[in-house]
Design a protein that fits this description.
Number of helices: 11
Helix content: 25-40%
Oligomer: single chain
Low-confidence stretches: 1-27, 489-493
Largest sheet: 5 strands, antiparallel
Order of helices and strands: HEHEEHEEEEEEEEEEHHHHHHHHEE
Radius of gyration: 32 Å
Shape: elongated
Length: 496
């Protein structure tokens, strides 16, 4: 029996548990900064909802650092087309900076053409600071901001039919939260307001650029209101300014803003509403059918004479043929096994997402989890197809296993390979590299196929599933009907 000290400790623990703060995002640890620590802004892909083809940030002639370095990416990031690289945008923690020039670039005819095409296709630039993607506050027509954001900022905008302007100046705002117990700071927000500014200068000097429209000491945005047009053989000056703002938002809640962002192209509420209605109606119909047919199924199994069978009318006449093996039973087994594989992948992914393991801060985690779960669900695919195949009195379980392991994955991989070649020809970052392609093939042949064989072997060793009702030895003949004739079968007879 526990002593009084142990009982007191358990009671104290039970009182503290309800007050304990829940974990934020598994696998993600906060990063603390001190004053004057260097903050490195990283750049990601150029994305658009209009074309769905991502491109690397440096596909356009933006300012490049002396050495472009790629960040380590997981399988999901590569499949999504993410390409995270360093940039020329660096600043110090808690140090506001005014208009600062980062580079001076001359647009070649090809570069100007690329900029115009990306502006026409409404491409957006994605940047990252401390694993937070950059957000753009939405503005009303009167200039006031509203409490909503957009992912990334536009490459530029179109003024007239042949006049394009590039967003060459970025106004960053970094929001931070200070820890009361220490002098550490944590970044909880990263915003940007892009603008197009035609900088003026008399003579360019790379070491000390003297730009009349930029005043670093004044800590203000450029004074020029003339936009920077995109034109071949013209110079573009890229600049930025940054301000730091204290925020009451804690680090554990910094992703709330991004989770509330709405994509205008996707009507999530309508989709979820439709799915819920379909699931509810399907459940109701299934429950009614089960309650209605339960007694009939019990009666069918007790029929002994042919006269009793012929007493049935209407749709009940086909109860003895409902579970007859179809003509293409092998394909049906493959379809069902593959369906179970995808259903299991979706179900486990949703469970992990509800538990918080597939957080948005873990970039590419969702895609990686779906690929790995699909591979491991091959065990259930082989088991289901083999069980159904044995129910249909099949004997060649190895044949059905090979079809389950290679049919749908082979078709999907062939389509994926062709599309990847087309995307690679478009020089998009969505093209999967050869190393990643080899990893996918290894996951397929090295893990998924053996698991399908293991599941199929286990399923075929199980006893065959018995049909809920007896199947007639002689199939019932169904007379052919004209294409324009519709026969309605009811309990009282047949009507044309």
């Amino acid at each position: 029996m526990a002593n009084h000290g142990e009982i007191a400790a358990l009671l104290l623990l039970s009182l503290l548990l309800p007050q304990a703060a829940a974990f934020y995002l598994p696998g993600v640890a906060p990063r603390d900064f001190h004053k004057d620590d260097e903050l490195q802004v990283k750049v990601n892909k150029l994305s658009s909802t209009k074309t769905q083809l991502p491109y690397e940030f440096y596909f356009l002639d933006y300012c490049k650092p002396s050495k472009v370095m790629n960040s380590a990416e997981n399988l999901g990031e590569v499949l999504r087309g993410d390409r995270i690289e360093n940039s020329v945008y660096t600043f110090k923690m808690l140090k506001d900076e005014g208009c600062k020039v980062v580079c001076h670039a001359k647009l070649s005819p090809e570069a100007a053409k690329n900029f115009k095409e990306k502006i026409d296709d409404e491409y957006r630039v994605n940047m990252i600071l401390d694993n937070l993607p950059v957000a753009v506050p939405r503005q009303r027509r009167d200039g006031s901001q509203i409490a909503s954001y957009e992912h990334g900022f536009r490459v530029g905008y179109k003024v007239k039919e042949d006049q394009y302007c590039i967003n060459n100046h970025l106004s960053f705002k970094v929001m931070y939260h200070k820890d009361l117990e220490s002098e550490d700071y944590r970044i909880v927000g990263f915003e940007v307001i892009p603008s197009s500014v035609k900088h003026e200068y008399s003579e360019w000097d790379d070491k000390k650029p003297n730009v009349q429209t930029c005043n670093p000491s004044a800590k203000i945005t450029p004074t020029s209101n003339i936009p920077q047009e995109v034109a071949a053989e013209k110079y573009v000056v890229f600049s930025f300014d940054v301000t730091f703002q204290s925020s009451e938002i804690k680090w554990a809640s910094r992703w709330d803003t991004y989770l509330l962002m709405n994509d205008d192209q996707i009507h999530w509420f309508s989709i979820v509403n439709s799915l819920m209605i379909v699931l509810f109606l399907s459940g109701m119909v299934a429950m009614i059918m089960m309650r209605t047919l339960y007694r009939d199924i019990a009666n069918y199994n007790q029929l002994e004479t042919q006269e009793e069978v012929q007493e049935e009318t209407g749709w009940k006449l086909v109860h003895g043929d409902a579970f007859r093996s179809p003509t293409q039973s092998d394909l049906l087994c493959v379809y069902v096994g593959t369906g179970v594989q995808f259903f299991g992948m979706t179900l486990v992914t949703m469970i992990f997402a509800l538990l918080g393991f597939l957080s948005p801060s873990n970039r590419g985690g969702l895609m990686t989890a779906m690929v790995l779960l699909w591979v491991f669900m091959g065990l259930f695919a082989g088991y289901t197809s083999a069980r159904l195949y044995k129910m249909f009195k099949g004997t060649e379980w190895k044949k059905i296993t090979l079809r389950t392991a290679f049919m749908f994955p082979g078709i999907g991989f062939s389509i994926f390979f062709v599309l990847n070649a087309i995307i690679w020809g478009e020089k998009s970052s969505g093209a999967v590299p050869f190393g990643t392609m080899f990893a996918l093939v290894f996951l397929w042949f090295g893990i998924s196929v053996p698991l399908v064989f293991v599941g199929s072997y286990i399923g075929f060793k199980k006893p065959a599933i018995e049909d809920p009702v007896k199947t007639n030895k002689i199939p019932r003949q169904i007379p052919e009907q004209a294409c324009f004739a519709v026969k309605i079968i009811t309990g009282g007879g047949e009507h044309i």
